[in-house]
Amino acid sequence: MRARDFGLVCGTLPTGAGNAITDVPGVRVGHQTIRDGEVNTGVTAILPHDGNLFRSKVPAAVHVINGFGKSVGLVQVEELGSLETPILLTNTLSVADCAKTLIRQAIAANPDIGRTTSTVNPVVCECNDGVLNDIQAFAVSEADALAALHAADGGVVAEGAVGAGTGMVCFGFKGGIGTASRRLVIDGEDRHIGVLVLSNFGRSGDLMLPDGTRATPDKRPVLPVEETEKGSIIVIVATDLPADYRQLGRIAKRAGAGIARLGAFWGNGSGDIVLAFGTASRIDHDETRDSVPSAMLNEARIDRAFQAVAEATQEAILNSLCAADTFQGRERTVKQSLAAWLMARRG
């Protein structure tokens, strides 16, 4: 189930056809889910296009809301404003294996990497799923990362406890993968902003729904302010708007508004990172011209993109919570589904 099945609507802008990041043409998503006893984890892959990303890069930007994280590749994305591998999401201790997979895949397609051309910048982001997963088992392998990449398609995106979201917890409920999109009309054409989240953040009792209801799992009272806010959220933003990396950075910042609307305040122990990329233009690795043209959004119109990413982020998080069933993980720890909570409230 998704948030709209419970009448939870975020904002006023129209959604894309699938209300998912894959509404952005060319974007694909794949999951590899691992559930085996105490192990509850996985990998999620996001691909901006079907081609050779190293040779045909896309503009990208990073916004770090709170930097409590162990991601790979973000420094170069921020410096050069481009993305040259797919994005992999996983648990904190599996970043290295996922990065190695991206490197091997890039070299297989581009044998000149590290020889006669530059090395490659793999991008992997993570959240700590140790509450529900035996993270010390190092269960994610290179084969799992490869499986997520091979599973990627542009259809319906599985949400909830799948892929990297298998063992995640959000506001005390079962969290995980969620997605949403918004449709904008630019120069008479439909354009999209799509968001995919890996939700693993927020204190139990802090979740504020769009209808003004405060949702607390297991009917517990709101926790005292001494309770720490820990966890993480990774927000991936895709768009086919004509935006350069600076504008993508401005758009990425507004994802924080969507997170905050739900009651989060980005605590000291929370890693909150946004990575945005655009598909409307490409950056040719083998470019020979001294200067290249660039398309940009008129910044007098960019507020619509800001609103779209805030709304889509808020809804993607709620979708991650509604799609996840009540879940028993490591050491019999149980996390309730928000959908179950909402259905119980309906009576």
UniProtKB/TrEMBL annotation:
Q: Name one GO molecular function term.
A: aminopeptidase activity
Q: Which UniProt keywords apply?
A: Aminopeptidase, Hydrolase, Protease
What Pfam families does UniProt report for this protein, alphabetically?
Peptidase_S58
Q: Which InterPro entries match?
A: ArgJ-like_dom_sf, Peptidase_S58_DmpA
Which regions form coiled coils? Answer: none
Q: What is its EC number?
A: 3.4.11.19
Name the family: Belongs to the peptidase S58 family.
Q: What is this protein called?
A: D-aminopeptidase
